[in-house]
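Deliverable D4.2, example record:
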Amino acid sequence: MEFALFRLPDGRAWIGQGPFVSLAEPAKEGGCFYLNDFDLSDPLPWKKPSKLQEVSAGNVESLIGPTEKPFKVQWDKPATEWFKMAFRRIRREVLAGRLQKMVPVLVEKGRRLSGQPLELLRQVISAPSNLWGYAHVSGEKGFLGA
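Output generated by the structure prediction step:
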């Protein structure tokens, strides 16, 4: 199973279901998702889904179905010391005028204990209305955020 989700702050959202076609540029027709890594190393980062549909909190039930088990994740402790060190260095560089802006990243990793990945869509779509939302799941791996 592979899917991608993109949600705007106004609540409109689109889900794309795989298989996905990888492209160097966005498709002229239909929707695409930009999926790349932090190194921007994918030469074909635009992913065109085989099926794309608009969803909302009101109609996500028809796509996902009723919840059988709650989605539970066991989270690994993030490397907060590295983040603090990077943040202090970035702050020093900004104050010295050598940088205008830089954003350190802290990633949390987790393992699914129960539930189906599609259940995550309900959580991203139901995020507060002032947030963007996104998700990508391919098999047992994926990411999401709001």
